[in-house]
TrEMBL record:
Compartments (UniProt record): Cytoplasm
Cofactor requirement: Mg(2+)
Native source organism of the sequence: Williamsoniiplasma luminosum
HAMAP family named in the record: PPAT_bact
UniProt GO molecular function: ATP binding; pantetheine-phosphate adenylyltransferase activity
Protein name (Swiss-Prot/TrEMBL): Phosphopantetheine adenylyltransferase
Domain named Cytidyltransferase-like: residues: 8-135
Protein residues bound to substrate: S12, K44, T77, R91
Record has Nucleotidyltransferase as a keyword: yes
UniProt pathway: Cofactor biosynthesis; coenzyme A biosynthesis; CoA from (R)-pantothenate: step 4/5
Pfam families linked to this entry: CTP_transf_like
Keywords of the record: ATP-binding, Coenzyme A biosynthesis, Cytoplasm, Magnesium, Nucleotide-binding, Nucleotidyltransferase, Transferase
Signal peptide per UniProt: none
Length: 144
């Protein structure tokens, strides 16, 4: 029996939005399964509790059997991937700034583990302006 090809999509997903979902569905065209790994980003303050983010994601993916959700509390993404035998990392880019950052990260990850590949997908034009930080700002304004 052939092993399912899985790709790991790690992020803080605070919150997960349409741009993330679009990348997940596009990745499922190439991979049997997407493993969403919810992380805490030490550079971001006021993050929603990780369990709440997982619940929100479960609602959005609606029990899709080709999507699994895991939590990474404090490991480097590349170490988490190796521990769970995940050989591919999914990253999305919206613009040249994202691309520069993701290439740098992919190269660093390649140094740390040459057996794990980063797959970069370019966001669809309609999703290119969406960011979790922008959504958080809107939510804060609406709650005032």
């Amino acid at each position: 029996m052939l092993e399912k090809q899985k790709i790991m999509f790690a992020g803080s997903f605070d919150p997960m939005h349409q741009g993330h979902l679009a990348l997940i569905h596009r990745a499922l065209k190439f991979f049997d399964q997407v493993v969403i790994v919810v992380t805490n980003n030490p550079e971001k303050t006021d993050q929603t509790d990780v369990d709440i983010r997982v619940q929100q994601i479960q609602t959005l993916i609606q029990n899709n059997p080709n999507i699994e959700i895991m939590i990474n509390q404090n490991q480097l993404t590349i170490d988490f991937a190796q521990m769970h035998n995940l050989k591919f990392l999914l990253r999305g880019v919206r613009n040249i700034e994202d691309f520069s950052f993701e290439v740098e990260m992919a190269q660093a990850n390649k140094i740390l583990n040459p057996n794990i590949e980063t797959i970069i997908l370019i966001s669809d034009a309609e999703d290119a302006k969406i960011s979790s930080r922008f959504i958080q700002q809107i939510d804060k304004i609406r709650k005032k």
